[in-house]
Amino acid sequence: MKAIVTVIGKDATGIVAGVATKLAELELNIDDISQTVLDGYFTMMAVVSSEKQLDFTALRSELETHGANLNVKINIQSAAIFDAMHNI
After folding, report:
1. Mean pLDDT score of the chain
2. Which residues, in sequence order, are bridge partners of residue 9?
3. CA distance to 1, 5, 62, per residue, from 11 (Å)
4. Nearest 10 degrees: Cα torsion 78, 46, 38, 60
5. What is the pLDDT of residues 23-43, one digit of tens each?
6. Cα dist from 38 to 9, 19, 32, whole Å
7. Overall pTM > 0.85
8. Record's InterPro entries (predicted)?
9. Residues 6 or more apart whose Cβ sits within 8 Å of residue 3
10. Banded model confidence at residue 88, pLDDT cuts 50, 70, 90
11. CA pair distance 52, 65, nearest whole angstrom
């Protein structure tokens, strides 16, 4: 399973650490990551994967809850959606 995780919110210490820790707890490996701060707002995009087929509804719920604790918005989407868009 491969997915794209995005994180957006006001910049603060510990966002990357908090998100990476949660992804590890969910047994998601970070394959690639990019982050920047734009005018005080933190943005991050990560490609994650897992050997297991994980439930996206459960993952999305866990990440949304964790994002609220970090004061950021976390979203996860299947990479298959992006692959399909480019094969049309």
Report:
1. 94
2. 42, 72
3. 30, 17, 21
4. 50
5. 999 999 999 999 999 999 999
6. 10, 19, 20
7. yes
8. ACT-like_dom_sf (IPR045865), ACT_dom (IPR002912), UPF0237/GcvR_regulator (IPR050990), UPF0237_ACT (IPR022986)
9. 28, 47, 48, 49, 56, 59, 76, 77, 78, 79
10. low
11. 22
